[in-house]
Amino acid sequence: FRTLGDIDPAGRKVVVRADLNVPVRDGKVGDPTRIQRAAETIRALLDKGAAVLVLSHFDRPKGKVVPGMSLRPIAAELEKVVGRPVRFVDTDWRDGRAAAAAAAAKPGDVLLFENTRFHPGEEDNDDAFAAQLAALGELFVNDAFSAAHRAHASTEGIARHLPAVAGLTMAAELAALEKALVAPERPVIAIVGGAKVSTKIDLLENLSTRVDQLVIGGGMANTFLAARGHRIGKSLCEADKLETARNIEGAARRAGCEIVLPVDVVAAKAFEAHAPHRVCGLDEVADDEMILDIGPRTVADLERRLDRARTVVWNGPFGAFELEPFDAGTNAVARIVARLTAAGRLLSVAGGGDTVAALNAAAVADDFSFVSTAGGAFLEWLEGKPLPGVEALRPRQAR
Ligand code: 3PG
To answer: Which amino acids does the record list as binding substrate (predicted)?
Structure first.
């Protein structure tokens, strides 16, 4: 991929696609990580003498102007983080305001345009709308890895109209994912948690052909345990996915990948914080109990495995991590990965909304080698699917 180092943005107008789709509650930005990462690219371009024209979507307004989904509140936040004035361009993308503002932009200016999804051409990847966006500037920098699974006008279409390169965040995401899965140091362990097998079938299948051990956690583990014939009481389980789980186990075995399930669990009668609970062996879960976390023998087993591994990719928490104390297993494993990473023994890459929340809660996210800001895009990448926003950055002859 070509990156920022391959272009000379001095005196040019550079269109930067960022992902400023951050959580906002009561007008306040929740997690500003995406804004912080976009700011690095914006600052780098400003330092080289560019005018920076920032595009992003926000939420899902479905091609209409929805005032509650305006990017305006984000402009103030972006200004704080970048440390330079940011001018918000209020446009419905049907008026001429975006073009006029871009035409007037000078080196050192930062413009943030209104939500690209206010125009239906964005999600339709309409070529006329892509050309309209491209006409704002002279170069295109895509820094929105987390939106790269969408083939939209501002992520994919625009790259057909302008010289296109990856921004710093995009480049860092791609480098980390490449190191973790394309050319990893082995052994590689993937940890995949979450509630449902049904949403992660493609991901599990793809990972089982790439990693040495696939650790399955969360509600999904119950389905795999049930498929192996273990008693799981009234645990969350997809009864119609037992065959799928067995097929994934079979495919993994043929690919030489070991599927790793809990060897002990924490069980409770109620799905609530601080519910009375006990540690028990796999077949000791009573009919009126449910599995809410992994047990200490499982944590010790994972520690031994991680100790021998060189690379770990993590998506999805283990137990019902949103309920104390059933976050204990996820926290313990997160601390082990963080310690081994800090000691230089492990390359660790994590991604997905819940995963990042869990690592932040355990206060270990900074110790991981790389934490992706992507949700859906990270999952699709783990599924082995090409991401349109990334593909559009490849030199044309390589596509
Ligand atoms: C995300 O938050 O995962 C990205 O910004 C993509 O958003 P979308 O799922 O609405 O396309």
So the answer is: 19-21, 34, 57-60, 117, 150
Mind telling me the catalytic residues? 34, 196, 353, 376
Tell me: pLDDT of 367 over 90.
yes
Residue 362 banded pLDDT, cuts 50, 70, 90: confident
Ligand 1 mutation target, pool 20, 149, 150, most atoms within 8 A of CB: 150
Residue 376 CB–ligand 1 contact under 6 Å: yes
ipTM confidence score: 0.99
Atom of ligand 1 nearest to the CA of 376: 3
Ligand 1: which of 57, 74, 115, 199 to mutate, most ligand atoms within 8 Å of CB?
57
Residue 179 lies inside a defined structural domain of this protein = no
Residue 317 lies in a domain: yes
Percentage of residues in the chain having pLDDT higher than 70: 99
Task: Please give the average per-residue pLDDT across 335-349, as a whole number.
Answer: 97
Asked if residue 122 has its Cβ within 6 Å of ligand 1, the reply is no
User: Domain check: are 326 and 191 in the same one?
Assistant: yes
Nearest residue to 293 via CA among 272, 279, 275: 279
> Do residue 188 and residue 167 come from a single domain?
no
Please indicate whether residue 311, judged by its CB atom, sits closer than 6 Å to ligand 1.
no
Question: What residue type is 185 in one-letter code?
Answer: E
DSSP 374: -
Quote the domain boundaries for residue 161: 4-171
Q: What pTM, to 2 d.p., does this model score?
A: 0.90
Instruction: State the burial class of residue 72 (Cβ atoms within 10 Å of its Cβ: 0-12, 13-18, 19+).
Output: middle
Closest CA to 78 of 118, 122, 32: 32
Q: Please check whether residues 222 and 321 belong to one and the same domain.
A: yes
pLDDT in tens, 186-228: 999 999 998 888 889 899 999 999 999 999 999 999 999 999 9
- Asked if 329 and 191 sit in the same domain, the reply is yes
Domain identity same for 144 and 204:
no
